[in-house]
Amino acid sequence: MRRDKITVPRLMEMKRSGKKITMLTAYDYPLAEILDEAGIDILLVGDSLGNVILGYENTIPVTMEDIIHHTKAVSRGVKNALVVSDMPFMSCFSREEALRNAGRLIQAGAEAVKLEGGLAFEDKIRALTEVGIPVMGHVGLMPQSIHQMGGYKVQGRTPEAAKKILNDAKAVERVGAFSIVLEGMPSNLAKKITEELKIPTIGIGAGAHCDGQVLVTHDLLGFYDFAPRFVKRYANLRKVILEASKEYKKEVEEGTFPTDRHIY
Ligand code: KIV
Predict the structure, then answer these.
(1) What is the pLDDT of residue 35?
(2) How far is the CA of 263 from the centre of ligand 1 (A)?
(3) Residues 8-18: pLDDT tens digits?
(4) pTM as predicted
(5) Res 137: pLDDT
(6) Which domain holds residue 23?
(7) 43 lines ligand 1 (CB under 6 A)
(8) The predicted structure's pLDDT at residue 3
Protein backbone atom coordinates (compact mmCIF):
# COMPACT_ATOMS: atom_id res chain seq x y z
CA MET A 1 0.00 0.00 0.00
CA ARG A 2 1.53 3.34 -1.06
CA ARG A 3 0.78 6.27 1.21
CA ASP A 4 1.80 9.88 1.23
CA LYS A 5 3.99 11.36 3.91
CA ILE A 6 2.00 12.84 6.78
CA THR A 7 2.95 16.46 7.37
CA VAL A 8 1.74 19.24 9.64
CA PRO A 9 -0.27 20.96 6.82
CA ARG A 10 -1.76 17.57 5.90
CA LEU A 11 -3.06 17.11 9.46
CA MET A 12 -4.71 20.55 9.36
CA GLU A 13 -6.29 19.52 6.05
CA MET A 14 -7.57 16.29 7.66
CA LYS A 15 -9.38 18.33 10.30
CA ARG A 16 -10.95 20.55 7.64
CA SER A 17 -12.12 17.55 5.62
CA GLY A 18 -13.36 15.58 8.66
CA LYS A 19 -10.94 12.66 8.21
CA LYS A 20 -10.10 11.15 11.60
CA ILE A 21 -6.45 11.23 12.65
CA THR A 22 -4.82 8.13 14.17
CA MET A 23 -1.91 8.37 16.58
CA LEU A 24 -0.13 5.68 18.60
CA THR A 25 2.95 5.67 20.76
CA ALA A 26 6.15 4.05 19.50
CA TYR A 27 9.44 3.65 21.29
CA ASP A 28 11.53 1.34 19.12
CA TYR A 29 12.41 0.46 15.53
CA PRO A 30 10.37 -2.74 14.98
CA LEU A 31 7.08 -1.41 16.34
CA ALA A 32 7.56 1.92 14.56
CA GLU A 33 8.04 0.06 11.29
CA ILE A 34 4.88 -2.03 11.80
CA LEU A 35 2.69 0.88 12.92
CA ASP A 36 3.92 2.95 9.98
CA GLU A 37 3.11 0.11 7.58
CA ALA A 38 -0.38 -0.08 9.17
CA GLY A 39 -0.91 3.51 8.08
CA ILE A 40 -1.01 5.17 11.53
CA ASP A 41 -0.74 8.92 10.89
CA ILE A 42 1.32 10.05 13.89
CA LEU A 43 3.82 8.09 15.99
CA LEU A 44 4.43 9.62 19.39
CA VAL A 45 7.65 8.90 21.22
CA GLY A 46 5.75 9.51 24.43
CA ASP A 47 7.20 9.89 27.88
CA SER A 48 4.81 7.01 28.67
CA LEU A 49 7.92 5.03 27.77
CA GLY A 50 8.75 5.57 31.45
CA ASN A 51 5.81 3.34 32.39
CA VAL A 52 5.66 0.79 29.60
CA ILE A 53 9.32 0.42 28.58
CA LEU A 54 11.47 1.48 31.53
CA GLY A 55 9.26 0.15 34.35
CA TYR A 56 8.88 3.42 36.27
CA GLU A 57 5.66 4.18 38.15
CA ASN A 58 5.06 7.39 36.24
CA THR A 59 6.56 9.60 33.53
CA ILE A 60 8.43 11.96 35.85
CA PRO A 61 11.83 10.17 35.87
CA VAL A 62 12.03 10.16 32.03
CA THR A 63 14.97 12.25 30.79
CA MET A 64 15.86 14.04 27.56
CA GLU A 65 18.46 11.31 26.94
CA ASP A 66 15.73 8.62 27.18
CA ILE A 67 13.49 10.41 24.67
CA ILE A 68 16.40 11.15 22.30
CA HIS A 69 17.53 7.51 22.37
CA HIS A 70 14.03 6.23 21.51
CA THR A 71 13.36 9.00 18.96
CA LYS A 72 16.42 7.89 16.99
CA ALA A 73 15.17 4.29 16.89
CA VAL A 74 11.60 5.24 15.94
CA SER A 75 12.60 7.67 13.20
CA ARG A 76 14.72 4.96 11.55
CA GLY A 77 11.62 2.75 11.27
CA VAL A 78 9.23 5.32 9.80
CA LYS A 79 8.51 6.21 6.17
CA ASN A 80 5.20 8.07 6.21
CA ALA A 81 3.97 8.78 9.73
CA LEU A 82 4.75 12.08 11.42
CA VAL A 83 7.16 11.47 14.31
CA VAL A 84 6.35 13.55 17.39
CA SER A 85 8.51 13.38 20.53
CA ASP A 86 7.51 14.32 24.04
CA MET A 87 9.27 17.08 25.95
CA PRO A 88 9.92 15.29 29.27
CA PHE A 89 9.31 16.65 32.78
CA MET A 90 11.01 20.01 33.39
CA SER A 91 12.58 20.16 29.94
CA CYS A 92 10.71 23.43 29.20
CA PHE A 93 11.60 25.23 32.39
CA SER A 94 12.58 28.38 30.45
CA ARG A 95 12.26 29.51 26.81
CA GLU A 96 15.97 28.88 26.31
CA GLU A 97 15.75 25.37 27.69
CA ALA A 98 12.64 24.62 25.64
CA LEU A 99 14.45 25.75 22.48
CA ARG A 100 17.61 23.81 23.25
CA ASN A 101 15.79 20.60 24.22
CA ALA A 102 13.27 20.69 21.36
CA GLY A 103 16.18 21.29 18.98
CA ARG A 104 17.88 18.15 20.28
CA LEU A 105 14.73 16.10 19.62
CA ILE A 106 14.41 17.44 16.08
CA GLN A 107 18.07 16.61 15.44
CA ALA A 108 17.39 13.09 16.74
CA GLY A 109 14.69 12.59 14.08
CA ALA A 110 11.47 14.04 15.53
CA GLU A 111 9.41 16.19 13.17
CA ALA A 112 7.49 17.90 15.97
CA VAL A 113 7.47 18.01 19.76
CA LYS A 114 4.63 17.65 22.27
CA LEU A 115 4.53 19.49 25.54
CA GLU A 116 2.13 19.33 28.47
CA GLY A 117 0.58 22.60 29.64
CA GLY A 118 -1.59 25.51 28.54
CA LEU A 119 -1.42 29.24 29.29
CA ALA A 120 1.65 28.83 31.49
CA PHE A 121 3.61 27.55 28.48
CA GLU A 122 2.51 30.18 25.95
CA ASP A 123 5.94 31.83 25.73
CA LYS A 124 7.72 28.49 25.26
CA ILE A 125 5.33 27.28 22.56
CA ARG A 126 5.59 30.63 20.75
CA ALA A 127 9.38 30.52 20.90
CA LEU A 128 9.43 27.02 19.38
CA THR A 129 6.95 27.71 16.59
CA GLU A 130 8.76 30.97 15.72
CA VAL A 131 11.94 29.04 14.95
CA GLY A 132 10.03 26.47 12.88
CA ILE A 133 9.61 23.64 15.39
CA PRO A 134 6.02 22.33 15.18
CA VAL A 135 4.40 21.93 18.60
CA MET A 136 1.58 19.63 19.70
CA GLY A 137 -0.05 20.84 22.93
CA HIS A 138 -1.45 18.62 25.69
CA VAL A 139 -4.14 19.73 28.17
CA GLY A 140 -6.60 18.14 30.60
CA LEU A 141 -5.07 15.24 32.51
CA MET A 142 -1.34 15.90 32.33
CA PRO A 143 0.65 12.91 33.66
CA GLN A 144 3.68 15.12 34.43
CA SER A 145 1.45 16.97 36.95
CA ILE A 146 0.03 13.92 38.77
CA HIS A 147 1.31 15.11 42.12
CA GLN A 148 -0.64 18.33 41.75
CA MET A 149 -3.70 16.56 40.33
CA GLY A 150 -3.67 13.90 43.08
CA GLY A 151 -3.31 11.01 40.64
CA TYR A 152 -4.66 10.02 37.25
CA LYS A 153 -8.06 11.72 37.59
CA VAL A 154 -10.43 13.03 34.95
CA GLN A 155 -10.06 16.82 34.75
CA GLY A 156 -12.59 19.54 33.90
CA ARG A 157 -15.62 18.15 35.71
CA THR A 158 -16.72 21.49 37.22
CA PRO A 159 -17.71 24.47 35.03
CA GLU A 160 -14.69 26.44 36.33
CA ALA A 161 -12.25 23.60 35.66
CA ALA A 162 -13.76 23.06 32.19
CA LYS A 163 -13.40 26.77 31.39
CA LYS A 164 -9.76 26.72 32.46
CA ILE A 165 -9.02 23.76 30.15
CA LEU A 166 -10.83 25.47 27.26
CA ASN A 167 -8.78 28.64 27.86
CA ASP A 168 -5.57 26.58 28.00
CA ALA A 169 -6.44 24.91 24.70
CA LYS A 170 -7.18 28.28 23.08
CA ALA A 171 -3.89 29.69 24.35
CA VAL A 172 -2.00 26.73 22.87
CA GLU A 173 -3.65 27.35 19.49
CA ARG A 174 -3.12 31.12 19.66
CA VAL A 175 0.65 30.80 20.06
CA GLY A 176 1.00 28.53 17.04
CA ALA A 177 0.63 24.87 18.03
CA PHE A 178 -0.45 22.67 15.09
CA SER A 179 -2.55 20.24 17.15
CA ILE A 180 -3.40 19.38 20.73
CA VAL A 181 -3.89 16.25 22.84
CA LEU A 182 -7.00 16.29 25.04
CA GLU A 183 -6.46 13.75 27.81
CA GLY A 184 -8.84 12.53 30.54
CA MET A 185 -11.76 14.93 30.31
CA PRO A 186 -15.54 14.68 29.85
CA SER A 187 -16.56 13.98 26.29
CA ASN A 188 -18.75 17.11 26.07
CA LEU A 189 -15.78 19.32 27.02
CA ALA A 190 -13.56 17.65 24.40
CA LYS A 191 -16.37 18.18 21.87
CA LYS A 192 -16.60 21.89 22.69
CA ILE A 193 -12.83 22.36 22.42
CA THR A 194 -12.79 20.45 19.13
CA GLU A 195 -15.53 22.69 17.74
CA GLU A 196 -13.89 25.91 18.91
CA LEU A 197 -10.34 25.22 17.72
CA LYS A 198 -9.09 25.26 14.12
CA ILE A 199 -6.22 22.91 14.93
CA PRO A 200 -6.88 19.15 15.23
CA THR A 201 -7.61 17.70 18.67
CA ILE A 202 -6.36 14.21 19.48
CA GLY A 203 -8.23 12.53 22.33
CA ILE A 204 -7.27 9.94 24.90
CA GLY A 205 -9.93 9.09 27.45
CA ALA A 206 -11.84 12.12 26.16
CA GLY A 207 -14.64 10.54 24.11
CA ALA A 208 -15.37 10.18 20.42
CA HIS A 209 -15.75 13.79 19.30
CA CYS A 210 -12.07 14.67 18.90
CA ASP A 211 -10.50 15.00 15.44
CA GLY A 212 -8.32 11.99 16.20
CA GLN A 213 -7.46 9.43 18.84
CA VAL A 214 -4.27 8.28 20.53
CA LEU A 215 -3.53 5.26 22.71
CA VAL A 216 -0.41 3.84 24.31
CA THR A 217 0.46 1.01 21.93
CA HIS A 218 1.41 -1.41 24.71
CA ASP A 219 -2.09 -0.98 26.19
CA LEU A 220 -3.93 -1.69 22.95
CA LEU A 221 -1.68 -4.65 22.15
CA GLY A 222 -2.23 -6.15 25.61
CA PHE A 223 1.34 -6.29 26.96
CA TYR A 224 0.18 -5.86 30.55
CA ASP A 225 -2.62 -7.34 32.67
CA PHE A 226 -3.73 -3.83 33.64
CA ALA A 227 -5.08 -1.29 31.16
CA PRO A 228 -7.02 1.90 31.90
CA ARG A 229 -10.81 1.75 31.39
CA PHE A 230 -10.78 3.93 28.25
CA VAL A 231 -8.45 1.51 26.43
CA LYS A 232 -9.71 -1.06 23.97
CA ARG A 233 -7.44 -4.09 23.74
CA TYR A 234 -7.05 -5.16 20.13
CA ALA A 235 -4.69 -8.05 20.93
CA ASN A 236 -3.27 -10.02 23.84
CA LEU A 237 0.44 -9.99 23.06
CA ARG A 238 1.31 -10.88 26.63
CA LYS A 239 -0.39 -14.25 26.08
CA VAL A 240 1.21 -14.74 22.64
CA ILE A 241 4.71 -13.94 23.96
CA LEU A 242 4.25 -16.07 27.09
CA GLU A 243 3.09 -19.07 25.08
CA ALA A 244 5.82 -18.73 22.46
CA SER A 245 8.61 -18.41 25.01
CA LYS A 246 7.31 -21.33 27.09
CA GLU A 247 7.13 -23.46 23.95
CA TYR A 248 10.73 -22.51 23.05
CA LYS A 249 11.92 -23.40 26.57
CA LYS A 250 10.13 -26.75 26.43
CA GLU A 251 11.53 -27.67 23.01
CA VAL A 252 15.12 -26.72 23.91
CA GLU A 253 14.88 -28.66 27.18
CA GLU A 254 13.42 -31.78 25.54
CA GLY A 255 15.79 -31.56 22.54
CA THR A 256 13.20 -31.02 19.76
CA PHE A 257 14.71 -27.63 18.84
CA PRO A 258 16.97 -27.11 16.97
CA THR A 259 16.62 -29.79 14.32
CA ASP A 260 18.97 -30.32 11.34
CA ARG A 261 16.89 -27.79 9.38
CA HIS A 262 17.71 -24.97 11.81
CA ILE A 263 21.31 -24.30 10.78
CA TYR A 264 23.16 -21.13 9.92
O1 KIV B 1 3.33 9.90 26.70
C2 KIV B 1 2.31 9.56 26.10
O3 KIV B 1 2.16 8.42 25.67
C4 KIV B 1 1.25 10.54 25.91
C5 KIV B 1 -0.03 10.06 25.33
C6 KIV B 1 -0.78 9.30 26.33
C7 KIV B 1 -0.81 11.17 24.73
O8 KIV B 1 1.42 11.67 26.24
Answers:
(1) 98
(2) 43
(3) 999 999 999 99
(4) 0.97
(5) 98
(6) 8-239
(7) no
(8) 77
Q: What is the pLDDT of residue 1?
A: 56
Q: How far does residue 156's CA lie from ligand 1's centre (Å)?
A: 18
- Per-chain mean pLDDT for the chain: 97
pLDDT digits (tens, 9 = 90+) for 17-58: 999 999 999 999 999 999 999 999 999 999 999 999 999 999
Q: Is residue 244 part of a domain?
A: no
pLDDT at 205: 98
| Catalytic-role residue among 130, 183, 243, 254 | 183
Q: Is the CB of 215 under 6 A from ligand 1?
A: no
pLDDT at 110: 98
Is 219 within a domain?
yes
For residue 166, the domain's CATH number is 3.20.20.60
Ligand 1 atom nearest to 23, measured from its CA: 7
Q: Is the CB of 180 under 6 A from ligand 1?
A: no
Evaluate whether residue 91 is within a structural domain: yes
Note whether residue 57 is domain-resident.
Answer: yes
Residue 254 is among the residues annotated as catalytic for this protein: no
Number of domains in the chain: 1
Task: Give every residue of the chain whose pLDDT is below 70, as ranges.
Answer: 1-2
Residue 4 CA to ligand 1 center (angstroms) comes to: 25
Q: Please work out whether the CB of residue 48 comes within 6 Å of at least one atom of ligand 1.
A: yes
Confirm or reject: Cβ of 46 under 6 Å from ligand 1: yes
For every residue of the chain, DSSP letters joined together read: ---PPP-HHHHHHHHHHTPPEEEEE--SHHHHHHHHHTT-SEEEE-TTHHHHTS--SSSTT--HHHHHHHHHHHHHH-SSSEEEEE--TTTTSSHHHHHHHHHHHHHHT-SEEE--BSGGGHHHHHHHHHTT--EEEEEES-GGGHHHHTSS-----SHHHHHHHHHHHHHHHHTT-SEEEEES--HHHHHHHHHH-SSPEEEESS-S-SSEEEE-HHHHTT-SS---TT------HHHHHHHHHHHHHHHHHHT-SS-TTS--
